[in-house]
Amino acid sequence: MILVSPIGNVDEWLVEEVVDFVGDYYYRFSMKVKRGPAVPLRPFLKAYNPYRNQYLGRIFLPTLSLMGKRLKARAVLGVMDVDLYEEGLNFIFGLANPSLKAAVVSIYRLRPEFYGERPNEGLLMERAIKEAMHELGHVFGLEHCLNVRCVMHFSNSIYDTDLKTPFYCFSCEEKLRRNLEVKG
Ligand SMILES: [Zn+2]
Ligand SMILES: [Zn+2]
Questions:
Q1: Which residues of 80-103 are buried (b: 16+ CB within 10 A; e: fewer)?
Q2: Which residue of 49, 70, 97, 111 shows the fewest CB atoms closer than 10 Å?
Q3: Residue 54 belongs to what domain range?
Q4: How far is the CA of 165 from the centre of ligand 1 (A)?
Q5: The domain spanning residue 132 has which CATH number?
Q6: pLDDT by residue (tens digit) across 50-85?
Q7: Which ligand is the nearest neighbour of the Cα of 143?
Q8: Would residue 66 count as lying in a domain?
Q9: Ligand 2: distance of its center to the CA of 175 in Å?
Q10: Is the pTM value of this prediction over 0.85?
């Protein structure tokens, strides 16, 4: 089972779209997606860096990991709407830790408005789905892929995200299949 949980205030329709897409895809691996309860942002204030006005992504993963363990989930994905960063990077769209079986994505930088463009719910939804599929791929042991159309391609910017498809390429999908079989 894959658990998807919002952290803080996130558009509910967007979380539903992510849950639907991920659920349809992972169904072929006989995995179901469960919608988890929203996690409050307040306990994570230590992740907030006032100098950068951003949140340190990795702080969220252990808590998600515990939520997942309780439900015997094979992966937990937190969905947020705050600006995330990691040391050495100006920002991140999301991050994952395979040993914690946990990942987060943020929609903060996925909105067209962030880039001075007109709001576009369809585009926002596509981007959120791609980032969710990418981070879940990491949780299941996939690494970055050189194929620019593969969802495991690294997104340096939103243009990379827009160029890739929401799917794993053939070789990433084969690897995913093996990883999911081995780990039963
Ligand atoms: Zn990645
Ligand atoms: Zn690939």
A1: bbbbbbeeeeeebbbbbbbebbbb
A2: 70
A3: 2-142
A4: 14
A5: 3.40.390.10
A6: 999 999 999 999 999 999 999 999 999 999 999 999
A7: 1
A8: yes
A9: 9
A10: yes
> Which residue has 């498809």 as its token pair?
165
Segment (H or E) for 102: strand 102-106
Verify whether residue 131 is a known catalytic residue.
no
Longest dimension (CA), the chain: 45
pLDDT band at 184 (very low <50, low <70, confident <90, very high): very low
37 assigned to some structural domain: yes
Number of structural domains (the chain) is: 1
The catalytic position among 135, 143, 174, 181 is 135
Ligand number nearest to the C-alpha of 138: 1
Q: In what order do the strands lie in the sheet with 84-86?
A: 48-49, 54-56, 84-86, 89-92
Q: Which ligand is nearest to the CA of 98?
A: 1
Ligand 1 center to 134 CA (angstroms):
6
Q: For the segment 36-47, what is each residue's pLDDT rounded down to a tens digit?
A: 999 999 999 999
Distance 93 CA to ligand 1 centre (A): 9
CB 80 within 8 A of CB 105: yes
CB 23 within 8 A of CB 1: no
Distance (angstroms) between ligand 2 centre and the Cα of 36 equals 29
- Which ligand is nearest the CA of 97, by number? 1
Cα dist from 179 to 107, 142, 167, 168, whole Å? 28, 9, 17, 14
Q: What's the CA-to-centroid distance between 81 and ligand 1, angstroms?
A: 18
